[in-house]
TrEMBL record:
Listed Pfam families: SelO
PANTHER family (alphabetical): PROTEIN ADENYLYLTRANSFERASE SELO, MITOCHONDRIAL
Keyword list, A-Z: ATP-binding, Magnesium, Manganese, Metal-binding, Nucleotide-binding, Nucleotidyltransferase, Transferase
Protein name: Protein nucleotidyltransferase YdiU
InterPro entries: SelO (IPR003846)
Name of encoding gene: ydiU
Residue positions binding Mg(2+): N250, D259
Molecular function GO terms recorded: AMPylase activity; ATP binding; magnesium ion binding; manganese ion binding
Role according to the record: Nucleotidyltransferase involved in the post-translational modification of proteins. It can catalyze the addition of adenosine monophosphate (AMP) or uridine monophosphate (UMP) to a protein, resulting in modifications known as AMPylation and UMPylation.
Length: 485
């Protein structure tokens, strides 16, 4: 595979050329063997551990790398900030098979750039471990996500509220284009640049649209971005993931999960769940994520207006139905997903009322989202579990059973189908925190590796799985997350 930086073709204005700032004593802390193999970069495969630590701390340059910090803007909690950008990240380049630009490789925590504002350009080890573990868990769960190739400790201290060990995390992504990348140029009235970005994104993510021209091309691009967000957020809802900071600068145009700063998992089912300390209004609460994704898509749509028609009103007439179509598309995808979690093949109009009632029962009783669906899946093979669930859930259980009786399959087939949608284990908040604390205290990645071994197989019960299935004593009532700076 070739390694180069296709983003450079866009020209100045899209980025700042910037080398990572070297760190004192880089040591490889976590390494993603599987991902490294799939990237298939000779210089990486041939490198030993200390050479990898050099490459993925920013101390040495990977052959072909041309580090840059990308410009982007973003709506943060609804307020527009015209100037954000990679303040602590360096995009090294992308892996390519020689035809189409492929996966991006980016260092995060690799030092200051022109976009750092008051920040130190660094990342603490805790958030780096969280990003690595959470993104691996999401990938294994089948959720579209950016991944991590490495965490390298720097031997330096970063100062937040307290002194913390520093790290550089290497992220691998379909691209680092965000809704905020488009907003950056639209806010400056640089629509040629918005168009260039679109064309680049089409080449990279939606090559099927390459032959379209003019308005049709950009409308199709928007529709494709809508489709990706529908799938993404539906998958988050399936596994109980709360992103925590769905600002437009954290919304990747590729439809991958990006930025694991204040993310968390829901335990007890409630659409109102919020864990992020800065999300005081609950804007990014679990059940509001689908609406926010549409709001973010509307911000993307606005940047495309001049590309669609010289007359803004006519452009808006063409664009609006595409953004509005998200609602129906999401509803359809969402209720099918919930139906499948409950073992139905698909969701009819009548089923929605039944399923809504089912979720309401979970909420009213404060039942654990993951464990309840795991137990419902296992209830087909165990009379004891079935009777436990029947008494926990109450009268709705029989309504569910009656509905399942209309499916033509046997119980075992239904259970098999449910298992595809219902994991046995997720990266629960209290385990994630404990693993991070243990890694930092011991200076060893062992706790993270043990956790990862289970999370990489989230639909199977391994001997070690049980240790990670328990719900926290306080039901996460006092749990808070913080933006991972
Ligand atoms: N320690 C830091 N030094 C400099 N800039 C920072 C620092 N932390 C965050 N920023 C910048 O603040 C903005 C918002 O940060 P946010 O936490 O959303 O992103 P991030 O976690 O740094 O990166 P990403 O979204 O790429 O995962 C971004 O422009 C980011 O580069
Ligand atoms: Mg961010």
């Amino acid at each position: 595979m070739e390694f180069q930086n296709s983003y450079l073709d866009l020209g100045e204005g899209f980025y700042q050329t910037a080398d990572p700032e070297p760190v004192r004593s880089p040591e490889l802390f976590l390494w993603n063997h599987g991902l490294a193999q799939s990237l298939n970069i000779a210089a990486v495969n041939d490198a030993g551990e200390s050479a990898r630590a050099q490459f993925f701390s920013g101390n040495a340059k990977l052959p072909g790398a041309r580090p840059i910090a990308l410009a982007y803007a973003g709506h943060q909690f609804g307020h527009f900030n015209p100037q954000l950008g990679d303040g602590r990240a360096h995009l090294l380049g992308d892996v390519s098979d020689g035809t189409c630009p492929g996966q991006d490789i980016q260092l995060k925590g690799s030092g200051k750039t022109a976009f750092s504002r008051g920040g130190d350009g660094r990342c603490a080890l805790g958030p780096a471990i969280r990003e690595f573990v959470m993104s691996e868990a999401m990938a294994a769960l089948g959720v579209p996500t950016t991944r991590c190739l490495a965490v390298v400790t720097t031997g330096e201290t970063v100062y937040r509220e307290t002194p913390l060990p520093g790290a550089v995390v290497t992220r691998v992504a379909a691209s680092h284009l965000r809704v905020g990348s488009f907003e950056y140029f639209a806010a400056r009235n640089q629509y040629d640049s918005v168009q260039k970005l679109c064309d680049y994104a089409i080449r990279k993510h939606y090559p099927g649209l390459n032959d379209l021209e003019g308005a049709e091309r950009y409308l199709a691009f928007l529709a494709a971005a809508v489709e990706k967000q529908v799938r993404l957020v539906c998958e988050w809802m399936r596994v109980g993931f709360i992103h925590g900071v769905m600002n437009t600068d954290n919304t990747a145009i590729s439809g991958e999960t990006i930025d694991f700063g204040p993310c968390a998992m829901i335990g007890a089912y409630s659409p109102n769940t919020v864990f992020s300390s800065i999300d005081t209004q609950g804007r990014y609460r679990f059940g509001h994520q689908p609406n926010i994704a549409q709001w973010n898509l509307a911000r993307l749509a606005e940047t495309l207006i001049p590309l669609v028609d010289d007359d803004a009103n006519r452009a808006i007439e063409k664009i609006t139905p595409i953004v509005m179509a998200y609602t129906d598309q999401f509803q359809k995808a969402y209720w099918n997903m919930i139906a499948q979690k409950y073992g139905l093949r698909e969701c009819t109009e009548d089923d929605i009322a039944l399923l809504t009632e089912g979720l309401d029962v979970l909420k009213a009783k404060g039942m654990d989202y993951t464990n309840t669906f795991d137990l419902l899946t296992r209830s087909f093979e165990s009379v004891a579990i079935a009777s436990e669930m029947k008494s926990e859930i109450g009268p709705w259980y029989m309504k569910w059973q009656d509905r399942l009786a209309q499916e033509t399959d046997e119980g075992a087939q239904i259970a098999e189908r449910m298992r595809k949608h219902n994991p046995v284990v997720i990266p629960r908040n209290h385990h994630m925190e404990q693993v991070i604390a243990e890694c930092i205290e011991s200076g060893s990645p062992e706790a993270a590796l043990r956790f990862l071994a289970v999370l990489r197989d989230p639909y199977q019960v391994l001997p070690e799985t049980k240790a990670y299935q328990d719900i926290p004593g306080d039901g996460d009532r006092y749990y808070q997350t913080f933006c991972g700076t």
